[in-house]
Amino acid sequence: MNIVIITQNEPFYLAENLKYLIEIMPEHSKIVGCVVADVSPFGKKESFLKKAKRTYKIFGLNFFLYYSKKYILSKFNKQKNIFHLLNQYKIPEINLDHHINHKESVAKIKSHQPDLLISILGNQIFKEPIINLAPKGCINLHTALLPKYRGLMPTFWVLKNNEEKTGVSVFYVDKGIDSGPIIVQKEAEIGGRTQEELIRYTKKIGMEAIAESIDLIFKNEVVLIDNDASKKTYFTFPTKKDVDEFKRKGKKFY
Question: What's the whole-model pTM score?
Answer without folding.
Answer: 0.94
